[in-house]
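Try it yourself: sequence plus manganese (II) ion, in.
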Amino acid sequence: MDPKAKPLIRKRTGDYRWQEVDVLRYKQEGSAPFQDVTRQVLFDVTDPPSQLRYFEVAPGGWTTLERHEHVHAVMVIRGRGQCLVGDEAWEIGMHDLVSVPAMTWHQFRAAADAPLGFLCLVSAERDRPQLPSPEEDEVIARPLQGKPVDSGSR
Ligand code: MN
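Structure, out:
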């Protein structure tokens, strides 16, 4: 068997862990602001160039506020939290699907008392994320400010 061949099935090996999938840092430390996020690449092919990743944001953590030309499809499979997409923020939880259009600011935040784990489908050939300036950041993230972090209502 070609040692580089990808297994057809990656069995789960524990909670949100899969065979031969390493738990990676979300991004290089210092490359962009984020807090307590891990990344696992579950699927990575060239035809069509696409990846399925699993990100997990620890309680109280958050992903980078960013935008880019490539789109995301995100499905929550663990915990709950909030997302910002464009100029709106939502409470999100298990099995909610979030579509992030091109060049739309987005950020995912875990609840203070629960992680937020999600699958994210993305093109393997993609542009680099753009980050807001500190002044823009405040305005763009404003829809998240008034949101209760732990509604617990789901
Ligand atoms: Mn993104």
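One thing you can check immediately is this: Confidence is low (pLDDT under 50) at residues 149-154.
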